[in-house]
Amino acid sequence: MTATPALSVVVPVFNEQDNVAPLVGEVVAALRGNPLLGADGFEIVYVDDHSRDATLATLQGLKAQVPELRVIHHVEQSGQSTAIRNGVKAARGAWIATLDGDGQNDPADIPKLLAQRAQADATVKLFAGWRVNRQDSGSKRWASKWANAIRSRMLRDDTPDTGCGIKLFERAAFLELPHFNHMHRYLPALMQRAGFATVSVPVNHRHRTAGVSKYNNLNRALVGIADLRGVAWLIRRGKVTAVEELP
């Protein structure tokens, strides 16, 4: 791995001790030697959100085996959006791939997103995963369907699945976005507000095999109402102006 890798894979985790090693292994298998990354390769930036189990110790142990692995630790629990942002800020790659730490996203889809980027216009700064075959419970799928429908109607972001954890985006573009708790659920709308284009890419989705979900339908719904109103306000108040430097 070079000092400036072609890609940084950012993975936020909280109490995922049994999912860490398998997921790191899958990321390495998907990306090590991948021609889409060239000689610069990749790094993996795990952000431990002050886990209370052996997640941090497991990550520390893996660093000796996986030279691409870096570990960031929150000294207090701060939430998924903050973990993602801190991972992106610490990342050295110009492009970022994100994965949920529960193993439901498939790292083998990262090369698919990279291939889409290679074919896309330079104005596209976000390639968002689209879980076409959800492996969650029926109640979670139902709740997600309605949440996506309401979000799409309010924000008009033309994105079928904004909650999918696997995404590929330009680091610099991401760091221009307004930061707030749960902002990771609204990346397509926020990128479009900033004047960038986004593309949804069908990806695999898997059952959780270890650990427990950190969210339920009720807490998602309660925070989602306020978040939607806030993002809609940001979109209404946003303005993108082209600039040019005179000779």
Q: What fraction, in percent, of the residue positions are helical? A: 25-40%
For the biggest β-sheet, the strand order reads 3-2-1-4-6-5-7
How many distinct domains?
Answer: 1
Evaluate the radius of gyration.
Answer: 18 Å
Broad structural category: alpha/beta
What share of the residues does DSSP label as strand, in percent? 15-25%
**CATH homologous superfamily title:** Spore Coat Polysaccharide Biosynthesis Protein SpsA, Chain A
| Apparent shape | globular
Number of separate strands? 7
What's the average pLDDT?
Answer: 89
Q: End-to-end distance, in Å? A: 41 Å
Biggest sheet architecture:
7 strands, mixed
